[in-house]
Amino acid sequence: MNGCAAALPSVVVRGFQHEVLFYEGPGGFLDGAVPFVREGLARREPVLAVIDREKIELLRERLGADAEEVAFEDMTELGRNPGRIIPAWREFIASCGTGQAIRGIGEPISAGRSPEELVECQLHEALLNVAFADAEDFLLLCPYDTAALREEVVHEARCSHPLVVAGAANEPSHDYRGTADPLAPFEAPLPRPPSGAETLGFERSTLSDVRRLVAEVSERAGLPPRRREDLVLAVNELATNSVRYGGGHGIVRVWRDDDALRCEVRDRGRIEDPLVGRREQAADQIGGWGVWIAHQVSDLVQVRSGPDGTVVRLRMRCA
After folding, report:
1. Can you give the pLDDT at residue 280?
2. What is the value of pTM for the model shown?
3. Domain with CATH 3.30.565.10 in the chain
């Protein structure tokens, strides 16, 4: 992610403000985003906009010369796996230095998202409130196109954002569910793997069999060599976590689904940290790399954990 240019500290201190902007079409987006950005620039606050390429061009054109003071990231690339977005915001904040007020625009949810991607994006939006609860001064605006999104998606946005933009101000969202249990709405089990999925039980002495299975199935599926290596690494780390923390054993399943390869690791352990895999690991850290690596190399990661155990499912596009 781009670092920020040098800027004078803002005198405004707000902690973390997570706002939702409901708009209709490109014109509505610009009407909400441009004043938000210009206010930040007037206060000498670094601004990062993580939006799709089309909106980046629209915003650049409307801002004119001011666009040179704004950092942009393409959400289509950065947010392909929503689990990578929070670490990217952390990186931007760190690059701006201690005590620097910042603001951002992030639009992970669009009409083009698949149903499973949409759920993970909604989980991401809820987890932002946990991840940045202690932020000194971070104002994040999340646009939602009400002309393109279903009514239930718009309602969920009210549940995950404490503030709703209303004209030049904002107002509390009465549907906001808070941060007491951010995983609660997403504890429903994942769809069952197909009956033809390759299945293997494993323990410490058979981790090599896990690696061999994933490598063989991914090669048959046509996954490019580098992607195969990444997938084998990620699944091996997850299976190792199962051995260390999930009861000593687990089950791995691998299958082809349309244009993607899917792998999941199940065990009897339970994950208590809702931000697992979304905190950057220290280079010298021993253990705890499994879900982080999975997020870095996969196109989508789904984590579900409850009284019956934990499942981590990865998706890798074959093309």
Report:
1. 77
2. 0.92
3. 195-317
Residue 147 structure tokens: 């002309």
User: Where do the DSSP E strands lie in 93-209?
Assistant: 102-106, 137-145, 163-166, 169-172, 198-203
Angle at 94 between CA 83 and CA 125, to 5 degrees: 30
**Which residue has tokens 């969920």?**
156
Walk along the chain (319 residues) in steps of 10 and give the mean pLDDT of each run: 48 78 97 97 97 98 98 96 96 91 97 94 95 94 98 96 88 91 68 95 98 97 94 96 94 94 96 87 66 95 91 93
Displacement of CA 1 from its chain's centroid (Å): 14
CATH number of 15-182: 3.40.50.300
List the structure tokens of 125: 């939006």
Q: Which two tokens stand for residue 168?
A: 């030049």
Do 101 and 73 touch, CB atoms closer than 8 A?
no
Work out the widest C-alpha separation in the chain, in whole angstroms. Answer: 62
